[in-house]
Amino acid sequence: MSTRLAPSITANRGLQTDLREYPPSLAADGLAVGIVMSRFNPQIGEGLLSACTGELHRLGVDLARSVLSSVPGALEIPLALSTLARSGRYAALIALGAVIRGETYHFEIVANESSRGIMDVQLKTGVPIANGILTCENDDQALARMHAKGIDCAQAAVEMANLLRAVAGENP
Length: 172
Known about the structure:
By secondary structure, the protein is an alpha/beta fold. The protein is 49% helix and 19% strand.
């Protein structure tokens, strides 16, 4: 992937520079992706997974080289992601699950700590991770969001894998 001049960015700010941009790319061209899905709230997880894998296939991800790992809940996702990232086999990772608010503070702990763990893994390993753990007030909100979020995660994973490869000087 090559860089290009980015007149849209500089023109919007009234600047004239030779700023170069890595254009976004959703061309997966055989990328391998690792997915970790929570088994808690299984209907939501399966909906996220269906939308995500459908979009990964559409984008050209090599599903035969990709993997799905399921874990008991959202707090277990970062450890599984870390193991997949350290394997060196995947260009990007995706976390899928749902944390639904209950009557206790547990919701905040699970939502915040799973998100922090995902970010830590991403920054420590350099492997991009699309965070598809929905945090919702109720099941209806999660059901309404799962399809779009699954698609968004597939696209974010592919785009970030391509960006990192372009920055490293590889051809996607």
